[in-house]
Amino acid sequence: MTQLPSEKPALFKGRHFNHLLIIQAVRWYVTYLRHEVASITVKTARAGLHPLFHQRFSTGMNKELVVHTTVMRWVQCFVPVFEKKWKKYARPVGSSWRVDETYIKVKGEWRYLYRAVDKQGQTVDFLLSKNRNKAAAVRFFKKAIGNNEIPEKITLDGSQASHQAVAELKAEGVLPAQTLVRTNKYLNNMIEQDHRKVKQRCYPMLGFKTFGNAEVTLSGIELANKIKKGQFDTSGITSPGAMIPQVWEAVLAA
Prior knowledge:
The chain has 254 residues and is α/β, with parallel strands linked by helices.
């Protein structure tokens, strides 16, 4: 069997487990449903594809030795760092945005997840908020504009708070006065469909324990979705045909 590299990047210094296992566990956690993660780790161990996974993730009964809470701690620790690393290779999104909110349960209470995609379905940005009001919508738009180029068109749902937020940002000069704002349920079907990819991953979690944990985990889920959508250009640091684990290693090492 192929052995894992023993050299550990500075990012993972002091960690007991091999860095490749940590990267893989975090990636799977934010990408797949929990039962899919369990299935994948068992299959990987059975196939002998990864000796460290065989050692750490399964016993003779195919039960996990790395407990779920350990992986959750890795997610909280490493997702913010992973997100910053990947951001350096982000492709620009389009100038026509579809904006909408959905609901996420945190500590037994519904919170509001503001999200936007462009007309090609590429993720623009997201913001988790305790409230659904103009102030929250303003924060979302400022975050999205700060991370991307200013949009030429914004398609909103019927929420008055979002319309008021855009009007305020135009008055402040954050958005150009000529920015086209419209309400079109047909055009916003795209963002509503995109919400499902995030919420399907959240359902098995049965809600988040804290607001901070929810923010970080959602960041990881959004990152995984953006990678799936091809929103990063890593051609400068990877060879053609590179496998996903190799791409992740190259991004985190750069």
